[in-house]
Amino acid sequence: xxxxxxxxxxxxxxxxxxxxxxxxxxxxxxxxxxxxxxxxxxxxxxxxxxxxxxxxxxxxxxxxxxxxxxxxxxxxxxxxxxxxxxxxxxxxxxxxxxxxxxxxxxxxxxxxxxxxxxxxxxxxxxxxxxxxxxxxxxxxxxxxxxxx
Length: 148
Description:
Layout (H helix, E strand, L loop, with lengths): L1 H21 L4 H7 L6 H11 L3 H9 L3 H8 L2 H29 L3 H13 L1 H14 L13
């Protein structure tokens, strides 16, 4: 079961990544990606992997030590849970980059490759997007969210 959950996790996120990267200007892409619920399937996989072994995971995470984390992540359920965690949060971050970049008027020619990088190396993708975000001004006529 762990192997199956691992295998399907990324496939739950793939359609949304494909929309943001390959069809960023399609009117339905923004409507679909607007919901944070697109992250729900990998989050449910994470819960299905962690809840049966909650005590082990909690012990490793409440007082993190490298050896203990290595032990839990070295198990099938730990590695699969970590993968589901990565997929869900990478998608959430990619969703934010997509929506924020659209609001700021950034060209998809810049953002789509950045989203591919975010799939593979989310912290680097987010870091680069933050550099773009804080070193450019929104396109004229664009309404940027207040938290920007």
